[in-house]
Amino acid sequence: MCGLAGFARHPEGRDSDIAIIIGLDLLQSMEKRGTHATGFAAFGDESFICKSAIRAREAITSEPWQQAIGRMNAKTTIFMAHTRHSTHQSNTKLDEAAHPFHIGKIVGAHNGMITNWRDVWNEFGNKNQSPWIVDSQAAVGILDAIKRPEEALNQLDGYWALEWVKGNELYLCRTKDAQLSFAYVPDMRTMFWASEMEPLNYWLRKSNVGSFTAWEIGPNTIYRFDPTRFDETGVHGQTKYAEFRGRRTHVTRQQIATTSGRAVTQRRELPSGDSRLDVLERTVKQLVGEVESLKEELDVLQQIAGLSDDQQHHVQQDLGL
Fold first, then answer.
1. CATH class of 3-241
2. Going along 48-180, which residue ranges are E strands?
3. Distance between terminal CA atoms of the chain?
4. Is the peptide bond before 100 cis (omega within 30 degrees of 0)?
5. DSSP 8-state symbol, 148
6. In this structure, what is the dihedral angle of CA atoms 162, 163, 168, 169, given to the nearest 10 degrees?
7. pLDDT for 194-242, tens place per residue?
8. Cβ distance 177 to 122 under 8 Å?
């Protein structure tokens, strides 16, 4: 589970300093959803990404982050932030595994799990760039590879809430299994968002921004916002319904294997000239490798589901591991 937060504001909107403070407050509120890494992207007269493999409260007070935060100003129109709970133990401490990611024309961040991300890389990945190291990069990469977002996201198996920027526009969406809400402050001509509604209401009321309206992002709908259209009456955004495939109802051996980029069910034929003993030996070695992969991916799913050690043991027994 990861956390999304941010703001988008009209270039001539008032109280940019308050918007930045609220954005950082929302980011810190999302720390409970992920402590392995923290990051943000800022867009305006200067656009940049700042991210570190440390928890939000440590990141924000660090010297590099203070310098990056100081680069935001009244011309900053979008602030997009993320807190990460790693689902890949091997890259938990890597700064480059933190969000947001910049791939092609897209800068984006993701909460959730994408099980076919290696397959997406094999088919749509930009081979002129480094291979992806986390599943979230599949969401950003596919949005860059396929022009229509509804078509792009339908290539993904899993569940997600997404925030991304293309050009000067902000996009938000979620599947039914994820959370995402936003609020609009007319007097500031500024929109705020977060994975959870409660911190939105709390920080906007605490900051005395005046009246605001909050909504939950609808599932299977892509929201598109152009901050230059924000005015005293609303955000004037656009929505488009999209039928995301989403995740399977139950976690299966095949789903776990798909996460690792391997297929458990394969047709094995006897090659010409090989003895059955040779084939059996290779098959056993292959199965042993697949079982080890399943155990690794099960550890990932345990983190996501919050399973206890006893519960994990029962799942392993059910799967025959």
1. alpha beta
2. 48-52, 78-84, 101-103, 106-114, 158-166, 169-174
3. 26
4. yes
5. S
6. 60
7. 999 999 999 999 999 999 999 999 999 999 999 999 999 999 999 998 8
8. no
